[in-house]
Amino acid sequence: MIRIQNLHKAFDGHAVLKGIDLEIRKGEVVALIGGSGSGKSVLIKHVAGLLKPDRGSVSVDGKNMAVLKGKERIALRARLGFLFQGGALFDSMTVYENVAFPLKEKFRLSEKRIEARVLEELENVGLAGAENKFPSQISGGMAKRAALARALVTDPEIMLFDEPTTGLDPVTGLNIIRLIDACRKRLHFTGIIVTHAVPRVFAIVDKVVMLHEGRIKLQGRPKDFMESADPLVQAFVGHSLEGVEDTFTGSEGS
Question: Hey, which of 42, 92, 176, 226 has its CA 20 to 30 A from 139?
């Protein structure tokens, strides 16, 4: 579904992406890991169509994101959901208004249908009853849940998560990872998760891709990363796959 070919991007003469080649199949969820400045967020923004490559291409179902225009571009981007780092909720809007925003922007729906859909998605992410609160009145974890509901309310086929656990304590971060997993099982979207939550995220993804200095250092199954003898990979992994699986045993998406 997503094909990235020879992707290059530089800012002010500084090369950030240096020839990325990656394919993500329909229904596959990929963890994108690597050190700060390795190009993770820049890569995911290319997939979202927020940045244009200097060289190379990003295609979704064979359509090049960088060259699409007009209705075709709008239609393709409507199939994507994006959970921004920090959530990016509108401070002047209630939780309800934040989640309703993409429905009002992208679709012509009655207020009754919008209300039903928003309340349904808030319940799905564990925020039933919080719809009239403002972002300043809820916790960081609740704000991430609200942002996730906003990203999912349009039933996207592709979900992009940019550091979904940043700024959260370990327990809340783990709950967000579990919630993403529950949403994936419910909606069957294709996904990319940019994250430092390694190896916790390994329990919910099909593939892991590690960037280093603008290039792919390693890609493969979570098990491949756990068994890698590469010192750089080991520094990101830290402990055993069994320990990660135990963390999720018997867990419910919350």
Answer: 42
